[in-house]
Amino acid sequence: MEYLPLPPEKDKTGSDTFPTRPHKFPDISERQQGVTKKSYQMPKVKTNSSAKKRFKVTGSGKITFQKAFKRHILTKKSTKRKRNMRIDGTVSDANLHFVKRLLGMK
Question: Is residue 92 part of a domain?
Protein backbone atom coordinates (compact mmCIF):
# COMPACT_ATOMS: atom_id res chain seq x y z
CA MET A 1 0.00 0.00 0.00
CA GLU A 2 1.22 3.44 -0.81
CA TYR A 3 0.70 6.35 1.53
CA LEU A 4 0.54 9.70 -0.23
CA PRO A 5 1.31 12.87 1.68
CA LEU A 6 -1.60 15.29 1.96
CA PRO A 7 -1.43 19.04 2.19
CA PRO A 8 -2.34 20.53 5.57
CA GLU A 9 -6.06 21.05 6.08
CA LYS A 10 -7.81 24.01 7.65
CA ASP A 11 -9.84 23.22 10.74
CA LYS A 12 -12.74 25.30 12.15
CA THR A 13 -10.37 27.70 13.89
CA GLY A 14 -8.48 28.40 10.66
CA SER A 15 -5.13 26.97 11.74
CA ASP A 16 -3.27 24.40 9.67
CA THR A 17 -3.57 20.84 10.96
CA PHE A 18 -2.31 17.60 9.52
CA PRO A 19 -4.64 14.63 9.26
CA THR A 20 -4.08 12.00 11.91
CA ARG A 21 -4.02 9.21 9.30
CA PRO A 22 -2.90 9.83 5.75
CA HIS A 23 -5.21 8.55 3.03
CA LYS A 24 -4.39 5.12 1.77
CA PHE A 25 -4.80 4.13 -1.89
CA PRO A 26 -5.43 0.41 -2.29
CA ASP A 27 -3.35 -1.79 -4.57
CA ILE A 28 -4.92 -3.09 -7.75
CA SER A 29 -5.40 -6.54 -6.19
CA GLU A 30 -7.43 -5.08 -3.31
CA ARG A 31 -9.76 -3.18 -5.61
CA GLN A 32 -10.74 -6.24 -7.61
CA GLN A 33 -13.82 -8.19 -6.69
CA GLY A 34 -13.37 -11.62 -5.17
CA VAL A 35 -10.34 -13.21 -3.61
CA THR A 36 -6.96 -12.47 -5.12
CA LYS A 37 -3.69 -14.05 -4.06
CA LYS A 38 -0.38 -12.25 -3.92
CA SER A 39 1.78 -15.34 -4.47
CA TYR A 40 1.42 -18.11 -7.04
CA GLN A 41 1.28 -21.71 -5.84
CA MET A 42 1.99 -24.63 -8.14
CA PRO A 43 -0.99 -26.94 -8.74
CA LYS A 44 -1.06 -30.31 -7.02
CA VAL A 45 -0.20 -33.41 -9.04
CA LYS A 46 -3.27 -35.62 -9.28
CA THR A 47 -3.01 -39.40 -9.20
CA ASN A 48 -4.75 -41.14 -12.08
CA SER A 49 -8.00 -42.53 -10.63
CA SER A 50 -8.05 -45.71 -12.71
CA ALA A 51 -4.39 -46.48 -11.93
CA LYS A 52 -4.81 -46.22 -8.17
CA LYS A 53 -7.60 -48.83 -8.36
CA ARG A 54 -5.57 -51.26 -10.47
CA PHE A 55 -2.05 -51.11 -9.02
CA LYS A 56 -0.58 -51.53 -5.54
CA VAL A 57 2.90 -50.59 -4.38
CA THR A 58 4.57 -53.21 -2.20
CA GLY A 59 6.85 -52.50 0.74
CA SER A 60 9.92 -53.16 -1.37
CA GLY A 61 8.73 -50.64 -3.99
CA LYS A 62 7.52 -53.06 -6.65
CA ILE A 63 4.18 -52.39 -8.34
CA THR A 64 1.74 -55.29 -8.49
CA PHE A 65 -1.58 -55.85 -10.27
CA GLN A 66 -4.32 -58.49 -10.48
CA LYS A 67 -4.15 -60.77 -13.50
CA ALA A 68 -6.89 -60.69 -16.13
CA PHE A 69 -9.31 -63.40 -17.38
CA LYS A 70 -10.37 -64.72 -13.95
CA ARG A 71 -13.90 -63.26 -13.74
CA HIS A 72 -16.11 -65.60 -15.75
CA ILE A 73 -16.06 -68.51 -18.23
CA LEU A 74 -13.82 -70.45 -15.87
CA THR A 75 -15.09 -73.94 -16.70
CA LYS A 76 -13.00 -74.32 -19.84
CA LYS A 77 -9.83 -73.04 -18.12
CA SER A 78 -7.60 -75.58 -16.45
CA THR A 79 -7.03 -75.61 -12.69
CA LYS A 80 -3.35 -74.81 -13.18
CA ARG A 81 -4.20 -71.81 -15.37
CA LYS A 82 -6.72 -70.47 -12.80
CA ARG A 83 -4.25 -71.07 -9.95
CA ASN A 84 -1.55 -69.08 -11.74
CA MET A 85 -3.99 -66.23 -12.28
CA ARG A 86 -4.46 -65.94 -8.49
CA ILE A 87 -0.87 -64.74 -8.04
CA ASP A 88 -0.38 -60.98 -8.39
CA GLY A 89 1.63 -59.92 -11.41
CA THR A 90 4.43 -57.36 -11.22
CA VAL A 91 4.80 -54.48 -13.65
CA SER A 92 7.66 -55.06 -16.08
CA ASP A 93 10.59 -52.68 -16.36
CA ALA A 94 9.39 -51.57 -19.80
CA ASN A 95 6.15 -50.17 -18.35
CA LEU A 96 7.39 -49.18 -14.90
CA HIS A 97 8.13 -45.52 -15.70
CA PHE A 98 4.65 -45.05 -17.21
CA VAL A 99 2.80 -46.65 -14.28
CA LYS A 100 4.85 -44.64 -11.77
CA ARG A 101 3.88 -41.46 -13.58
CA LEU A 102 0.19 -42.42 -13.43
CA LEU A 103 0.49 -43.09 -9.69
CA GLY A 104 2.26 -39.78 -9.07
CA MET A 105 5.48 -41.44 -7.94
CA LYS A 106 7.65 -39.73 -10.53
Answer: yes
Domain range holding 64? 49-102
Please indicate, yes or no, whether residues 53 and 27 belong to a single structural domain of this protein. Answer: no
pLDDT of residue 44: 86
Q: Are strands 63-65 and 89-90 parallel, antiparallel or unpaired?
A: antiparallel
**Which pLDDT tens digit goes with each residue over 80-100?**
999 999 999 999 999 999 999
Nearby residues of 85 by Cβ (< 8 Å), 6 or more positions away:
67, 68, 69, 70
Same domain assignment for residues 57 and 21: no
